[in-house]
Amino acid sequence: TTDNTSMPEADDAALLERVQSTFSALYGKSPDGLWSAPGRVNLIGEHTDYNEGFVLPFAINRRTVLALALRDDRVIRISSAFAEGVVEINLDDLAVEELGPDVLSGWSAYPLGVAWALGRFGADLSGAGDAVDGLAAGAVTGSVTGFDAYLESTVPVGAGLSSSAAIESSIALALNDSWRLEFDRQTLAKVGQLAENKAVGAPTGIMDQSASLLGRRDAAVFLDCRSLDAEVVDLGFAAAGLELLIIDTNVAHAHSTGGYAARRASCEEGARLMDVPSLRYLDVDDLPRAQEVLSEETFRRVRHIVTENQRVLDTVRTLRLEGPAAIGSLLDASHASMRDDFEISVAELDVAVETAQANGAIGARMTGGGFGGAAIALVPSESIPALKIAITAAFSERNFTAPTMFVVSAADGAVREV
Ligand code: ADP
Ligand code: MG
Hints:
Layout: H1 9-27, E1 33-44, E2 54-70, E3 75-80, E4 87-90, H2 91-94, H3 109-120, E5 147-153, H4 163-178, H5 185-200, H6 207-214, E6 219-224, E7 230-234, E8 242-248, H7 256-273, H8 287-293, H9 296-321, H10 328-340, H11 347-358, E9 363-367, E10 374-380, H12 384-397, E11 404-408, E12 415-416
Parallel strand pairs: 3-5
Antiparallel strand pairs: 1-2, 1-12, 2-5, 2-6, 3-4, 6-7, 8-10, 8-11, 9-10
Helix pairs in contact: 3-4, 3-5, 4-5, 4-6, 5-6, 7-9, 8-9, 9-10, 11-12
The site of magnesium ion (MG) has 2 residues, from loops.
């Protein structure tokens, strides 16, 4: 069927069983445990993370499930349903300050990068039994050994739902438990970010891992990317009869790398010319002065960040005071700002958003880095079927690639399942 709506609970149980049995078939033994961690969607707060601003993502009901068993030697083996074969390395290769260029490559850089990053945060990967001095708090007991692991994921790759953070968070929690480390979840989020930045080489912020580790059912994670304070905010979608529809345009992020770097550079330039450490230090009252100081284009980039931070704060306040049915105009304004000021939308995203707005959504916006990827629409449940038909028709009329649409709900963050 093409109607891939939200994954029923029953499938979660089947997934756990399949991961367990595949692990046993691969390695000829039972796993010590099963851990899972979700992908995430960003409700509002786009490109604000690297400007030390606010974001409001939530963990979704699409997850990576990981089975892991410690070994009594220093061999690490890991495999995914997603890729052929088993990747094998030695813990010695990860017990280094900086990873050599050829140590980790391909998909396994995500999970094995986390094992390396745990070492950077104080876990003793050397086998000598001593803690690395002067790094983050977290008990180190010398129980660090090799392991066998297998994972499967229901988070679609590259749809802006952070399949990467789902992997990082699942193994971060699994190794934290198995190696008897005592990192808290906020530290594990930083571990995942370090893996993604240094082992994978993607210059991403802390949002994805925070959502995946701190998420709660029917709630969002309100994250201050300057202080890294995180607060859980009730969404109340179900009680209000609302659902969040993901509209993946299936447009590849053609300019995403260059575009992302260029937007970051504009934000840095804006902060420098306004003489602040980051754009977080500006608010809407500073915009008239910014308009005098900055070039027309840099001003619009800055205006997006400053107003987007305000929209995140307004969304949190509105959720608390009035409930989710009242946040639609903030989502709409966020999209307009990304389209006109930050200029990271594409025709497919604009059509998805406009069609949603015209067909019953209470609000809609593109989500993620831009230049392709997905849009989200907050929609009364009963309007979802007609909205999907309208979007399919709007895309086909314009000869766009058919979009993939599915509903997500806000789910719990990473957990030990078994
Ligand atoms: P996303 O927006 O989905 O996080 P990224 O490019 O950040 O996209 O991460 C996608 C990468 O994560 C994939 O190219 C792959 O290397 C890895 N990945 C995602 N899902 C899996 C999986 N189930 N098994 C192995 N690797 C995966
Ligand atoms: Mg990612």
